Amino acid sequence: xxxxxxxxxxxxSPDPRLGSSGTPPVDRPAQPAQAVPSPRRRRPSRRAxxxxxxxxxxxxxxxxxxxAPRPASLGAPAGDAELATALAPHLGGHRRVAAILVxxxxxxxxxFGTGEGAELEGSEFEIGSVSKTFTGALLAVAVERGELATxxxxxxxxxxxxxxxxxxxVILAELATHSSGLPRLAxxxxxxxxxxxxxxxxxxxxxxxxQQVIADAxxxxxxxxxxxAYSNLAVALEGQLLATxxxxxxxALLTERILEPLGMTSTYAPVTVGNLRETARRGxxxxxxxxxxxxxxxxxxAGGIRSTPADMTRYxxxxxxxxAPGAAAATExxxxxxxxxxxxxxxxxxxxxxxxxxxxxxxxxxxxxxFVGWDPSSGRGLALFSDTARSLDELAVGVLAxxxxx
Length: 406
Known about the structure:
With 406 residues, the protein is α+β, with helices and mostly antiparallel strands. It contains 13 helices and 11 strands. 59% of the residues are buried.
């Protein structure tokens, strides 16, 4: 990794640090931290799937776990009292949390440590790999507009720049379904710099802009193409190709085609630290230590979006009823992994045992965790956001499957 700039100042904790996407601390210290991962979807059982969701973040979080933990205390409840009471017993180890439950087209919002009313609605969170679903929506919009097709190749977007690359014939559908053969992270980005970022609790993706991400991907040789292998690099490339095809940058494309139509004025992809708003706050690793904020630079399409409960309520309800720009991203299946598991445009569709598939995506950065999903058969949807890098997956699936009483 390149040199990592200073983490934004924080009055409580001057020392910055990093984290990753997945869940609690884990292994692989030799691998760079992964942004907002989603479960590596091998499905023998729901528990196995949920536990598998941690790999990414684990690498870095594991390193920081070597320092003294700081016990978490769930903040004061706010918003919908009944929802807060039902969720609180399942949120051990978390601090500031927001929850959105959608039933029959109506949303209920609860929070912990967020403050009431406008404070709760406007409380900002890193949404991690849930950002990938916005990139999927951008792909769906480009297809609807006739600008691109899911079969469009890397070379068709980049032209001569892709000449001679082993991924020149990779198509957008492969990038959006983690079946392109690209690795989880670019080989060029792996190494000691990432480990150092982990120790310092900084964003491991900073310093590699959009053009560098594209170049990194073009230098890769696919392995296991046609098989599902979760790849942050693939989705980062997907987002940058969409921006290139539209002759703009990712953040501007996101705002123009998804955020503005939905009135999501508090949602944004900062891309660099200098674009963070005053509402941005640092989160906590699984051990409780404060983390540097992740903006992810050129990898922002894979996990760099920040949002609020108010905005994510708009997004979730519009995705459920199909009115969101690019809503087809959640329904047009592009990859069948098994009879119970498939992938649309950056959305996973999976039957966790109820007989009905759940549409979902999770995420985790160094200091935040997230989950957004719904059961299309019932219309029940749930979004969970925490400023602590501890997985919310098991709770979320339990709610959507009706196993957690609300």
